[in-house]
Structure formats: structure tokens, C-alpha cells
Design brief:
Oligomer: single chain
Helix content: 40-55%
Strand order of the largest sheet: 1-9-8-2-5-3-4
Number of helices: 11
Strand content: 15-25%
Largest sheet: 7 strands, mixed
Order of helices and strands: HHHHHEHEHEHEHEEEHEEH
Distance between the termini: 27 Å
């Protein structure tokens, strides 16, 4: 019985991967003027077809927003969410075939001086990030601007999509390390920090070995990597967040460097930092709930 269930999952992953490839190669030949309409079409299709995912998103929205939003508002967010995922993917394809001068026109950066200030300390920089907006485009943009930025990539449950994503990041020349080998990821990040680089920690997904913090009024477990590195290396910490604005461009907001008072209690320091980071993550999600990728995950457990 278990073997049959695993086989069905594997077949489903392969089917999803090949559908994904068809969309990918088809999109490479389409003018970007059509991306918005394609994303609405495919997004609505996914909203109706992917019932399990839709139910999970609505469930997470109910936990997070409770009675702050109506049932209709939550369903609208879920519908837009699917369209945003498609649009993000299409735009990621777009930047592989346009010059950087055109790519820059898609971006608006607020607080870039905060990142420069943090880098000027030459201690390395911890970047606090989340899966909001078109975060791969943000990461690629900062790398192409010449910032020594890298990230830790959490692998997808679909190994085929995960490998494709890694190949795409390499094509875009974005430094990264995957969590396939956690020790390797930690060693890589240590070296990057010691060289004075920026390591981005995406800390908005569940981490069973993390610390418990408040998030949308619920207790959740969040990764501790950002806090651990910041405390150990005494390096500056900046928040790097992105979201799509009404004119279709991507706004990148860089906050900080954040100030912390460290004590002799390591665990308490890390808990306090992690709680603060998640408050900043929540702030941007509340502003742009239809652009948060992690609604698809079991964030509230």
C-alpha cells in the first residue's frame, strides 16, 4: 500500500515537472506583454484545479487573519496568489533573455544605502528575507549589481523542479548553496560571511529544530540561522524584502542595520532576534498577502 502511494507521488511529480517544462519553453518565445494575461489565465485554472493547494492556502489564511478578512477576501487572495506564482515564473524567464539595463527598469530599490553601510563594516552581512514577491528576481538583481550576495536554498519536495531551479540560478550567476547537505551549507555560509559577503536567510517556513516565536498571533517554529550567524560573527543584519507594486515593478526594501543588545544568554538572544525578524516578515506579508509563497506550506502547526 505504501509503495503504491509513493509511486503515485513520484508519477505526479514527473507529470508536474514536464508540464512545467512545456510552459517554460513556450514562454521563452512569447513577448512579455502577454505575461500578465497568461498569468491570470493559468492562475485561475490552477485555483480551480489544485483543490488540495487551494484548501491549504485558505486554511492558512483563516489561521493568520481569522475574522480580519471576509471569506470572499480570502478567496480573492488565494486566486491572486496562483496568478502571482505564474507571473513570477514568467518574469524569471524574461530576465534570462534581456540586457541588465532593461532588467533595472523593472526594479525600485529603497534603502540601498543601508546595505552599503552594513557592507562597509567588512564583517559580513546577514540578510533577513522571506518568500514574498518575486524574491528570485530580487536576489538576482542584487547579485548583478555587484553585491557579494548569496543565499541558502531549501530544496523542493519535487526533486526534478529543485534541480531545474538550481540550474536556472547557475545560469543567472546567482551564488547559492542548497540544504541537501546541511553541513556543507553551513560551512559555505561561514566562508561567505568571513569574506565580507552577504548571506540571505529565508526564515518564513517551518523549522522543527528552530525556536518558537509569535507569528500572526500564533506560535510557530522558525529557523535560527540568521540569529546564530549574527550573534556568533557580530556582523550587521539587514532586512531585504520585495513585493510587486501596482505599476508592475518590483520594490526592494532594505532595512537596518538592525541593532541588538547581546547578553550572556545565547539562546535568549537568538529567540529575541528570531521573534523580531518574524515581526518584520509579518509586516510585509500583511501588506501583500497574495504575494507570499509560503501560504502553500504548513506554516502553522
Amino acid at each position: 500500500m505504501r509503495k503504491n502511494k509513493n509511486l503515485k507521488k513520484e508519477i505526479f511529480r514527473v507529470i508536474i515537472y514536464y508540464l512545467f517544462l512545456q510552459v517554460y519553453y513556450l514562454s521563452k518565445f512569447l513577448p512579455s506583454i502577454y505575461y500578465k494575461y497568461i498569468s491570470i489565465l493559468w492562475g485561475n485554472f490552477a485555483f480551480f484545479v489544485m483543490r488540495k493547494s487551494r484548501k491549504r492556502i485558505i486554511k492558512n489564511l483563516n489561521i493568520a487573519f481569522k475574522d480580519e478578512l471576509t471569506k470572499e477576501e480570502k478567496e480573492k487572495i488565494a486566486r491572486h496568489f496562483f496568478s502571482q506564482i505564474v507571473l513570477n515564473f514568467l518574469e524569471l524567464i524574461k530576465i534570462t533573455k534581456i540586457p541588465f539595463s532593461e532588467y533595472q527598469k523593472m526594479m525600485i530599490v529603497e534603502g540601498e544605502e543601508n546595505l552599503k553601510k552594513a557592507l562597509s563594516e567588512k564583517k559580513g552581512v546577514v540578510g533577513v528575507c522571506c518568500h514574498l514577491g518575486n524574491f528570485p528576481i530580487m536576489q538576482t538583481f542584487l547579485a548583478k549589481k555587484g553585491y557579494p550576495i548569496s543565499m541558502i536554498v531549501r530544496h523542493s519536495n519535487n526533486i526534478y523542479l529543485s534541480r531545474f531551479n538550481n540550474r536556472l540560478l547557475k545560469q543567472l550567476k546567482v551564488p547559492f548553496v542548497t540544504k541537501w547537505n546541511l553541513k556543507e551549507a553551513i560551512d559555505y555560509s561561514k566562508k561567505w560571511i568571513r569574506k565580507g559577503g552577504i548571506v540571505c536567510f529565508y526564515l518564513d517556513q517551518h523549522a522543527g529544530n528552530g525556536v518558537e516565536v509569535d507569528f500572526f498571533g500564533e506560535k510557530v517554529f522558525t529557523p535560527v540561522g540568521a540569529g546564530v550567524f549574527a550573534r556568533k560573527y557580530k556582523c550587521p543584519v539587514v532586512g531585504i524584502f520585495t513585493y510587486r507594486i501596482k505599476n508592475g515593478k518590483h520594490k526592494v526594501v532594505i532595512e537596518g542595520p538592525y541593532k541588538f543588545n547581546f547578553t550572556s544568554d545565547t539562546r535568549k538572544d537568538i529567540e529575541n532576534m528570531s521573534a523580531f525578524f518574524m515581526k518584520r516578515v509579518e509586516h510585509y506579508i500583511r501588506k501583500n498577502p497574495d504575494q507570499w509563497f509560503t501560504w502553500l506550506h504548513r506554516r502553522f502547526r
